[in-house]
Amino acid sequence: MDLLLWIAIGFIIIGFVVLISMKKGMESKLAFITANMEDKESFTKAKSIIWWIVSTVAWGIVSMILIVWWFHKNFG
Fold first, then answer.
1. Are 42 and 32 in contact (CB under 8 A)?
2. What pLDDT, on a 0 to 100 scale, did the predictor assign at position 15?
3. What is the mean pLDDT of each run of 10 residues along the chain (76 residues)?
4. Model's pTM, two decimal places?
5. DSSP 5-72
6. Cβ atoms 18, 69 nearer than 8 A
7. In the chain, domain spans
């Protein structure tokens, strides 16, 4: 197998593991925010949730680019 494929598969698997491990913490932060809307700590927790979403989207885009790049390299 190609090194690029192994890099893509490893990146995707590691990303899924990180995503799943952080999911429970993000759910508890969201519950805290909905319960305490006026608290100043809610703002920092909301920022961390937003950055988690942005990083998850970036991880997904990079994963798709790696897979498309591998297909293009091997079948294009």
1. yes
2. 97
3. 93 97 96 92 95 98 97 93
4. 0.89
5. HHHHHHHHHHHHHHHHHHHHHHHHHHHHHHH-TT-HHHHHHHHHHHHHHHHHHHHHHHHHHHHHHHHH
6. no
7. 3-75
